[in-house]
Structures are given as C-alpha cells and as structure tokens.
C-alpha cells in the first residue's frame, strides 16, 4: 500500500503518511539518492529502517521533491534547497513527512506500554492520575511524547530537555489543537500542535504559534 494518508492542516502545509508494506527492492525503483544518503541506507542493518528510508523518498516525490533537494545540517535536521520547511519521521511500518512554508515538526510513535517505564523522563506522571485506565494513559503519554519530539525538531537546540524545557498544556483526546511551550535560555516560545491516531500509532505535527 503506497500513500496511506494525506492531510492539509493549513494553507501552505501538507502531511504525507506512508504505510511501509513494499519490499526494499520495489521502493528503490526509480529513486536516485545522493552519495550521502546512499551511504546512510547501505549502513542500516535493519530491513524496516532501510525500507522506511526509501519510502520517505516516495513521500518526497508526492510533493515534487527528489533526494537531491534534501540536505542535513550539523544537528541532523533536514532542510530543502528552496524556501520550504520539511520534517521527517518513521516508526516501525509507518513513515511521514510534513512540508510547509513555515517551520514545522512531525513525529509518529507506536502506542506501547513501554512508554509507562520512561514517562517520568519526559513528563510529570502526576498529571495523568485522573485518566480512566492504562490504555488511556498510554495513549495520552504517546501524544505528549510525540508532541515534545515534534517541538524538539522545530526548536533544534543542543541542550534542550524534554522534561526541563518543553511543556505540553493539558488536553482532552477530543481537542482538535493542543499547545506547547519551550522555555530555554531565558526565551519562551509557544507552539500549536495537532494529532491523529490510527492502527495503534500516534502522529503529531507542530507549528510555531504566531
């Protein structure tokens, strides 16, 4: 199954999600990689990572870009050669990109009980005591983790901590928009985020709040 979902959250912004079901060989067909990316994919030991990497190049093609339009800075953040912004994510058999005319970040996470063990490293667990059951806690923690991850991709500053510097305002599952704040090096930056859930996964994408 090629393109899984396309979303237009606002004018000038598109989200593309791919469900990786094709073979690595199929995904390589018609795709030309830069020397840097050829080295990256050839060094990947995981087959799903290699397939995910190539599926992202198909997502880029949906937006009219090729691999040679993409470059990475010293922090590993992806950029496009033109004036558009891009963010990339992958988790197990799903990959996604967001392309926009403003700074953006995106993250996909699988909803797993493993997140309960690491939650105290990125958010105060006391904020979740009112949730009805463990499944609801896992869902909400996954949204919060994805929100902080997507904000981190926009902010992209060394030393930025998920627990210490990024705060996600409490929200309900029914909320169309959630909000986050970064307080770092005496500066406060606010973000607006949207999320969706599908097939046991959570996708969160974020924008700077004007």
Characterise this structure:
- The strands form three sheets. Strands 7-11-10-9-8 form a five-stranded antiparallel β-sheet.
- 28% of the residues lie in helices and 34% in strands.
- The protein is built from six helices and eleven strands.
- The termini are far apart.
- Strand 10 and strand 11 form a beta hairpin.
- It has 210 residues and is of the alpha+beta class.
- The mean pLDDT is 93.
Summarize the SSE layout with pairings:
Blueprint: E1 3-10, E2 13-19, H1 24-28, H2 35-42, H3 47-62, E3 70-72, E4 78-80, E5 85-91, E6 94-100, E7 104-110, H4 115-118, H5 134-155, H6 162-165, E8 166-168, E9 178-184, E10 187-198, E11 201-208
Antiparallel strand pairs: 1-2, 2-6, 3-4, 5-6, 7-11, 8-9, 9-10, 10-11
Summarize the structure.
The chain has 210 residues and is an alpha+beta fold.
Order of H and E elements: EEHHHEEEEEHHHEEEE
Strand order of the largest sheet: 7-11-10-9-8
Q: How much helical structure, as a percent, in the residues?
A: 25-40%
How many E strands? 11
Number of helices: 6
Distance between the termini: 37 Å
Mean pLDDT across residues: 93
Note the beta-strand portion: 25-35%
- Shape verdict: globular
Main beta sheet, described? 5 strands, antiparallel
Compute the CA-based radius of gyration.
17 Å
- Computed structural class: alpha+beta
Assembly state here? single chain
* Poorly predicted sequence stretches spanning 5 or more consecutive residues: none
């Amino acid at each position: 199954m090629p393109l899984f979902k396309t979303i237009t959250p606002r004018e000038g912004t598109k989200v593309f999600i791919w469900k990786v079901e094709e073979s690595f060989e199929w995904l390589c067909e018609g795709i030309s990689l830069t020397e840097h990316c050829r080295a990256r994919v050839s060094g990947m030991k995981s087959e799903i990572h290699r397939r995910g990497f190539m599926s992202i190049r198909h997502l880029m093609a949906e937006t009219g870009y090729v691999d040679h339009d993409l470059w990475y800075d010293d922090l590993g953040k992806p950029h496009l050669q033109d004036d558009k912004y891009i963010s990339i994510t992958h988790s197990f058999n799903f990959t996604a990109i967001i392309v926009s005319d403003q700074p953006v970040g995106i993250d996909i996470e699988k909803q797993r009980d493993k997140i309960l063990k690491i939650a105290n490293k990125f958010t105060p667990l006391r904020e979740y005591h009112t949730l009805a059951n463990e499944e609801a806690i896992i869902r909400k923690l996954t949204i919060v983790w994805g929100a902080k991850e997507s904000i981190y991709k926009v902010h992209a500053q060394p030393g930025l901590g998920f627990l210490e510097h990024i705060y996600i305002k409490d929200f309900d599952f029914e909320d169309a928009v959630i909000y986050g704040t970064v307080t770092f090096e005496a500066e406060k930056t606010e973000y607006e985020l949207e999320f969706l859930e599908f097939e046991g996964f959570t996708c969160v994408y974020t924008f700077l709040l004007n």
